[in-house]
Amino acid sequence: MDNDEVLRLEGVAKVYGEGSAALEVLHGIDILVTSGEFVGIVGASGSGKTTLMNIVGCLDRPTRGSYALNGEDVSRLDDDKLSLVRNRAIGFVFQSFNLIQQMTVLENVELPLFYSHTPKRERHERCRALIEAVGLSHRPGHYPTQLSGGECQRVAIARALVNEPALLLTDEPTGNLDSKNGEEVLKIFHDLHAEGRTILMVTHNPEIAQGLPRIIEMRDGEVRSDPGPGSGRLVAEALA
Amino acid sequence: MILGRMLEVFVLGVRNLLRNKLRSFLTMLGMIFGVASVIAMLSVGAGARHEILSRIQELGVRNVILNSVKPPEQIKPETTETQWKNKYGLTFEDADYIEAVLPTVERMLRVNKIRQRLWYGSKRLEASVLGVEPEYLEMFGLKAGRGRVFNELDARKKAKVCVIRRGLVRQLETVEDPLGMWLDIGDFPFQVIGILEDEAFRSHTRKALNIDAAAQEVYIPYSTSMRTLGTTTFIERSGSQEFTEVDLDQIVVTTRHQDEVLRTSQMLHAALGRLHDDVDYEVVVPLELLQQSEQTQKVFNLVMILIASISLLVGGIGIANIMLATITERTKEIGIRRALGARRRDIVIQFLTETTAIAAIGGLFGCLFGVLGILGIVQLTNWTAMIAPEYVLISLVISCSVGILFGIFPARRAAYMDPITALRYE
Fold it and tell me: Quick one: pLDDT at residue B364?
């Protein structure tokens, strides 16, 4: 079971500010996610889910508690090592796509590989394959402004997958999309889950949340409900 | 691998610069002017140094030149006499003494000079006649353009031959070939055996060699001059006659080695100080001129460095300023790059590459404009400038340094942004 562990948060707390102005946003979060789970994190705004996502995404460090990703404690790493972890182990898909406007689809997808010092030829090959997988093989040379929102998000997904991350982290990936495109994107995530990827998705949308195998509900900086580790795996897999 | 990556980072930087061409160009202007002024000043400085050096080479680095000078306090006494005689300057005894006593002297050349009437047929001219050793002509590069200069043999025979300069040929206004013609100098007939080439002496050298720009001198062998014309110049003015006696107009002392020049000049000062009551001589040391000019050069260099630094500083501040604005604009991009795994140093390198590229391109244009500018200035003025291929390298080194120096602050600012805030920036 230990080998399957992807993410382990133990007593994670986050405090902003100091002294009397200190504000504790997270009050000791314990979450364990194992490999192959598709976990939704829901909660009202102000419940601390964004802060939690930042910590899980290694963009921020917990004030207290520990965070282990793939069995490695990352809660006390310095900025350089955190960058490395983000690069190697985490794939981000944001609500607003966050593509670099001045770079082509191919270049955007390549970016994580650029920072992992992958040789150019290998980069091209892997990226073309991924772009094809998300159904954009006809527009690798286009710029994000020339693409629809759904296409942009698919580019972002390709980019998130390019370094084969242990954890796919996504924050309202359908928030900026119309319902048709939103469904398509959501389907991609479900397909990825079916391939065995571990996904953490923050969402407001109860409809989307309903479709997820494991839902963690946050309120006021605490975990309100969590079906527990392993429940986010595919039913088929659980049966096997 | 590393080279390929550097190239990739560089291409990315240039692409980012090309995104906003006008802004990049305006940012570059500061560098262009800065580097152009550095290049212009370098070439003018090098030109000046070259000028001085060739001047000194014309006079000989190992030489010390003694000249007779008419002392200023020698004024005509209040007499009613219509004749009066005036003696000053270097004497034969000085020359003998120097030759006998100074250990560092390798060779000494005596020069005698008088103003004399010169007749050609019925045409009369006033001419400076210089009696010099054949070696003197060789030392100062006085060559015959036509005919020949006099040699050791002429000197030994005390031959009445002369070599004249072009200005005098013009002055004679003759249709005959001047080569081989006879001139009466004083009471003696001299045959013209050579006409000197136009030599491009600098005014400084002309002064040291006692020749004027009009180029009307006549050179005769020193030995001949001693036997025939003597050392007295006779000038007749309305009602009064003036005799000026100068034994030797000039003594050129050549030392054995350049290192001995300064010591020799000190000894000459001491010796002449003892032998003369008045300071009716001057000691010209080309090497000292070199040292003086090096002093001047130092001051010039300092001013140059200051001016160049200021323009480069302004250029650098321009770059830093624009980069800060660019970084604010590109906050989101920085956030994205950081989220995808760029380390702080990757961000620093990215922006430093941009500042360095903009500075380097500006530097190369600056180099080009500097060289063009200086060529223009040389056309319009009589300055000397030297242009060297290493200016391209110098420009690159300077501009890259400025780019890196002034890029560090904006680049670090970009790198130390909080990635979460940067990602949320719209």
Answer: 93
CB contact under 8 A, B16 and A102: yes
Where are chain A's structural domains?
A: 2-239
How far apart, in whole angstroms, are the C-alpha atoms of residue B89 and residue B70? 7
Chain A: residues touching B (Cβ < 8 Å): 54, 57, 59-60, 79-80, 83-84, 86-88, 92, 94, 98-100, 102, 111-112, 114-117, 119-120, 159, 163
A211/A228 Cα distance (integer angstroms) = 17
Q: Do A120 and B341 touch (CB under 8 A)?
A: no
Angstrom distance (rounded) from CA A188 to CA B309 = 59
Superfamily of domain A2-239: P-loop containing nucleotide triphosphate hydrolases (3.40.50.300)
Whole-angstrom distance, CA of residue A126 vs CA of residue A130: 6
Q: How far is CA A58 from CA A52, A83, B183, B400, B413, in A?
A: 10, 8, 104, 36, 21
pLDDT greater than 90 at residue A148? yes
In 10 A of CB A222, how many CB atoms?
15
Q: From the CA of B419, how many Å to the nearest CA of chain A?
A: 7
**Nearest CA-CA partner of B307 in B24, B62, B108, B38:** B38
pLDDT in tens, B103-155: 888 889 999 888 888 888 888 888 889 999 999 888 888 888 888 999 999 99
Residue (of B161, B163, B154) closest to B194 by Cα position: B163
In this prediction the ipTM stands at 0.94
